[in-house]
Amino acid sequence: MRARLLALVLLLLLAGCSSGGTRDDGRITLRFQSLAWQEESVEANKALVKEWNATHPDVRVEYVQGSWDSVHDQLLTAFEGGEAPDIIHDASDDLADFAYGGYLADLTDLLPARLKSDIPRRSWETTTFGDGVYGVPFLQEPRVLIANAKWLRQSGVRIPTPEKPWSWAEFRRITERLSGRGKYGIAWPLKEPVSATLNLSLSAGGQLFHRGADGKVTVRFQAADQVVPRTIHEQVGTDRSASPTTLGSGGSDTLPGFFGGRYAMVPLGFSYRQQIVQQAPKGFDWQVLPAPAGAGGLTQGVSPQTLSVAEDCPHKKEAAAFIDFLLRPPNMVRLALGDWMLPTGTRALADPALRTSEHGWATGTALAGQLRPAPAQTVRGYPEWKDKVATPALQEYYSGAIGLGALRERLEEDGNLVLARYQR
Fold this sequence. Notes:
Elements: H1 2-17, E1 20-22, E2 28-34, H2 39-55, E3 59-65, H3 71-81, E4 87-91, H4 96-100, H5 113-118, H6 121-124, E5 128-129, E6 132-133, E7 136-140, E8 143-148, H7 149-155, H8 168-177, H9 193-201, E9 209-211, E10 217-219, H10 223-237, H11 255-259, E11 265-269, H12 273-279, E12 286-290, E13 300-302, E14 305-309, H13 316-326, H14 329-339, E15 342-343, H15 346-349, H16 361-367, E16 371-373, H17 382-399, H18 404-420
Parallel strand pairs: 2-3, 2-4, 13-16
Antiparallel strand pairs: 1-2, 4-14, 5-6, 7-14, 7-15, 8-11, 8-12, 9-10
């Protein structure tokens, strides 16, 4: 009797540690960890889970709330402990080490042809590592300029459009023209400066990470890579057209000053529009403008949000079927509207709800075709390079503590030492 009881306890413990399971009645249970945090987005995700469960009685999905703030460390601990969720919501620039580490399932043969063809190849490149596909990119956002429309009209400056954007040089001249008397043409929120700098640098022809014939990556901070950081540095230190006090701020931190008429423009992710709609004073007139263009046009790097399946998931086929359901075109539109972002799917992107001029949706969708994988997508060791080398170096450069030569030395010499450890 005691032996049977012990065996039952061990069985329950093992079931509790698995990432998914089958109940005694034969019903499969899958755990879906979502990182949705905005109220509309959480509601959309939970509603879709409920709709799945109503029509798939043999495969039940449990909604698990995760957090962007701690997702990397949380997932790493879960993977190593054998307790990872079956279906994983993350961002493509966080997947490389998990994919190469064997923690994520290769979805190449699990996804339906409909989903593969609906999402452009450039988006699939963000989740392709080696010969495998380790996530489905489904939401993305360009970085745009949120502008005080009244201020720009009264200044008489040329208003850019996706068809005729500002160049980086024109952008610098305009921010200087808009500044003066304690007001600034631009406020750069650069608490986390790396992704903003690298992704916008694609518009100037920057690349930064170079992969050799041997597959190894090196950092080369060349002239095209320097256009964006030099522009920001000169706006802050020379032109006095960018607020020095926002360099250590997050995007949300700049909104009170923007609403208060201290800054004419703030570069923000497309999804920040929701906060502006919710928080802007009554009658505040704002508009969405494209980021400046350079030698690479309006090209911009993005790290789409992704859905992956854990390698330890015992029901990978069913998990992939849930992802396919979640990302059917009408459902992808619901997720995009909930997060105020752009869907990767071409059919969803064509939905009229995402092409209205209200709140700048049309400007965002006009930029969708110019979005490319962020430069660091497939670089192993990028998180450590970003945290230990690039972030402090860029923060010091933007604040004027070091010059361009020192920045280049730090990014290249120190950075390549870090990356080398991951490429042996």
